Amino acid sequence: MDSAIIRVGAAVQFFVPVAGDKARHFRTLDSCEATMEEARSTISKIFNGEPRSYTRFNLTQNMEGENSQVEMKLSSDMDEETGNPVGEHNGYAHSHNSTYARKPQRTPRNVCFMVIATLLIFIIGYLIGYLAHRRQDAEPVCAASSASASDSEAEARGPLLIEVEPTLNWDDIKKLLKDKLSTDSLQRTFNDFSRNDHEAGSSGDEALATLVFKRFNSYNMNPWTDEHFVRLQGPPTGANRVLFNGEEIGRPGGYLAYSAVGKKQGKVVYANYGTQEDFAHLQRERVELNGTVILVRAGRTSFAEKVANAEKQKAVAVLIYPDPFDYSIGMNEELFGHVHLGSGDPYTPGFPSFNHTQFPPAKSSGLPGILAQTITADTAAKLFRKMSGTSAPSQWVGLLGGVSYKMGGDNDNVTVEVNNVLTEKKIHNVFGVIKGFVDSDRYVVIGAQRDSWGTGFAKSTVGTSLLVELARAISDMVRKDGFKPRRSIVFASWSAGEFGSVGATEWLEGYLSSLNLKAFTYINLDGAVTGSETFQASASPLLYGLIEGTLKEVDYPTGPSGRTIYAQVAKANWEAEVMVPMKMDDSAYPFVAFSGIPSVSFSFAKKFQDYKFLGTFLDNKDNLNAATEYRLPEVAVAAAQVAGQMAVRLVHDHLLKLDIQRYKTKIRSYVSKINRQVYQLKQSGTLPESLTAQWLIMASGSYGRAVSNLLTSIENSDLNDIEMCRIINDRLMRVEHNLLSPYVSPRETPFRHIFMGSGPHTLNALVEHLDALKEGSPNADTNLFLNQFALATWTIKGCSNALEGDVWALDNEM
C-alpha cells in the first residue's frame, strides 16, 4: 500500500497508508482518538528505553482491513541509517528491504532532537483531536496530510481525505445529472463532432478519435487507445454492374461490404423482403430458386439476413433496392451496408485482430458465398419493367411508379458483377474511465461508434456526442460535486461499426477472459435518436427492471411538462409497448450474445416506421432534425439522461440493478413449450418413448430455487457489509455469462447465448427443430435434437448452480 510521509523536524517520520482506488476504510472519531492514543503510548515506550531502531504497530482494532497500519521511523541523521538485516525483533518480522537505524548514543544533541520531536508530536495530536471534536456533527474522517511530499507526488498517490459512503442520495444525483446536460452544450458538441467523411480507418475517423481522446483527457479520465488491424471491404476500383439480358441497366455507386466478388448470371426472381417467410411462400408456389438472381427490397431484416436466406435457396446473387413504400429518399439515392452474418472482422473469427500474422488464414462462417449488391429504386424500376412472369402477391407490391410487380420469367436473365476490394486498415478504439471508490475493478461500459459511410449524423455523430457529454457531466459530478460511485464507468468510442461492430467485437475478443469477470453491463448509444414520437429499447431481460425504473424518472422531451417517458409510451403492458427483440446488427448484440454481458440499446423513434436515412448520404443533421419535429437538442438531452441514469444507478447502488427473476419467466416459457411438443411427438412415435422433458423441467426448477434463495439472502444481508455486497453482485453479474453454451466453439458459433444467440444450441432452435420433426422436414434429425436437448438442459442447470453460490450449497439432484 502506498504511504504518505510526514516529516517532523529532522527526527521523526510517520508512514500513514494512503487510500488508493480500492480503499474501503471508514475513519471515525473514536478510531482517530484511539490512533493518537496508541501513537503517544508507543512513543513513550521508545523513550523509556525500549528498542528505538524501528517500531511497527497495527491499528486493526479501530480500522477495517489487516493492512491498516502506521509505521514510525526514528533517526537523528540520515547518515545513521544502515541496511543491516535483522531477522525478528520483539516479535515483528521484517522484510529484507526494511531500513533500520543504529541505536544512537545519548548525546546532548540527540536528547535535544528527541525532546523537540516529542513536543511536536503531542502538539500535532492535540490539534488533530481539537479539529476532530469540532467536526463531531459532521461525518468524521480520519486523514493524514503530507508536509514533505511534493504536490505532484501527493496528486499521484490520490486524495488523502477518504469517504467511502456516498454523500449524495439518489435524488441529489439525478438532479446533478439533469443540471449538467443542456441543449446548448449538446449543440456545441454536435458541431465539434460533425464530419462529412469519416469512414473507418480514414483520416476523418482518426481526427475524431484524436478529438475524443483529448476530451477524455481534459476530464481527467486517463484515456487510452486500442489498436487493431482489420480487413475491410471497400468500393470497387472500377465499377460494379447490373445487366438484363446482356444490356447494362445500372452501375451502382453504393456497395455491400463482404460480398463475394466476381460475375454471376441467372434468372431473376422477385422475393419481396427476402425473409424466411417470403422464401417459404416461393417454395409453396414451386418457384425454382436454384441458380437464380434474387431481387428484394430493403427493410424488415438486415442485408446480411436477406443474403443468407437467399444463399440457403442456392441463389447465385442478390440485388437489394429501397422501395418508396419503405424509403422516402428519392429514386437515385444509393444504399451502403455489409452482408457479414455476424460481427467483428470476419477474417479473424473468434479471436482478436491485433496482428494477422499470428493466426492462420480463417473466415467467418457468416461470410456469404454469393454476390450481393444494392441498386437504386430507379434501377429496380427498370428491372421490373423488363421482367415477365406472374404478378406478385398484393402484399408484395410497393410504390414504384408506373411499374407492374412481376415475379420474373424463365427468359429474364440478369448478370451481376461485383468488384469490391478487400484491404487491411488500422483502426483505433478510444477509452476513458471514471473509477469507482469501492469496487473499481467492476464496471459498466458506455459505447458509441464513431465512423459512418457519409455524414452519418444519426448513426454516429449523435451517439459520439452523447458519449462525450455524459463523460463530461459524470466526471464533473465526481470531481466537483461529491459524487462517489462505488463501481467504475468505462466510456468507449468504437471504429468500424458500419462493417458490423468490428471495433467493439475485436475488443471483446481480445479481452474476453477479463471482461466477463468484470464488465457487468453495456449501454449502447448508437441510434439513440431517430425520431421523437415514441421510445423503444432492446435489452437483456436482466435489465428490464432498470429500464422500467429509468423511464419513470426521465421526462419525455416533446410531451407535456413533467410527463415521464413511461407515462407517455406505456399502456396496459409497458414491455409490449417499449421492448423489441435485439437484432444481430445491433451494436449491443455481441456484448450479450458473444460475451455474456447484459446489454441495452434504446432509441427515441418515429411511430410505425424506421428512420430511413441510415446507410445513405442523406443521414445528416437537417433530416434528423425534421424527424424529431425540430426538437433534436431536447430529444438528445433526454437520451443522455436515460443512458446516464442507467449507468449511474448501476454504479451507485449497493447491489447491481440486475433482475434475475426475468430469466426464470423466460426459462419456464420455453420449458412449457418444449414439454408440450415433446409429449405430442412421443404420442405420434416420432420421438422415442424413453425421452422425457423431466430433466429440463427440473433444471428450470433449480434456477427458480436459486433465484429465490439469493433474494432471501439479499433480504437478510447487511448492505453496509462491502464484502457481502461484492459476493452477491458477482453472483448476479455472472448469470448472463453462464447462459452462454459451453458446448459450442466461440470461433464456429460465436453467439453462444441460449436465449439471445444464434445457432442450433439455442432454445429457440430446439423449438424450431421440434416443429421440423412434426412436419417431417428432411432437415430434421432426431439424434441431433436429443443431443441439443441434453446440452441445453445442462447449460440451464450450470447457470442455476453458479447462481446458487458455493459448491456445498448446491442441489446435486436432477
Describe the structure.
The structure is a single chain. With 814 residues, the chain is an alpha/beta fold. The protein folds into four domains: 3-157, no CATH class; 170-233 and 423-652, Zn peptidases (Aminopeptidase, 3-Layer(aba) Sandwich), CATH 3.40.630.10; 236-419, Glucose Oxidase, domain 1 (3-Layer(bba) Sandwich), CATH 3.50.30; 661-809, Transferrin receptor-like, dimerisation domain (Transcription Elongation Factor S-II, Chain A). It has 23 helices and 24 strands. The strands form six sheets. It has a seven-stranded mixed β-sheet with strand order 9-19-21-20-22-24-23, with helices on both faces. Helix 5 packs across helix 10 and helix 19 (661-684) packs parallel to helix 22.
Number of folding domains?
4
Q: In order across it, which strands form the biggest sheet? A: 9-19-21-20-22-24-23
Secondary structure tally, helices: 23
Shape: globular
The biggest beta sheet reads: 7 strands, mixed
Low-confidence stretches: 1-36, 39-105, 135-163
| CATH homologous superfamily caption of the largest domain | Zn peptidases
Which percent range describes the beta-strand content? 15-25%
CATH architecture of the largest domain, by name, is 3-Layer(aba) Sandwich
Cα-based radius of gyration, to the nearest Å: 32 Å
Give the termini distance in whole angstroms. Answer: 47 Å
Assign the structural class, choosing from mainly alpha, mainly beta, alpha/beta, alpha+beta, or little secondary structure: alpha/beta
Helical amount: 25-40%
Question: What's the rounded overall pLDDT mean?
Answer: 84
- The third-level CATH topology of the largest domain is Aminopeptidase
Number of strands: 24
CATH class (first level) name of the largest domain? Alpha Beta
Keywords: Cell membrane, Disulfide bond, Endocytosis, Glycoprotein, Lipoprotein, Membrane, Palmitate, Receptor, Signal-anchor, Transmembrane, Transmembrane helix
Domain Peptidase M28: 429-606
Main location: membrane
Pfam families: PA (PF02225), Peptidase_M28 (PF04389)
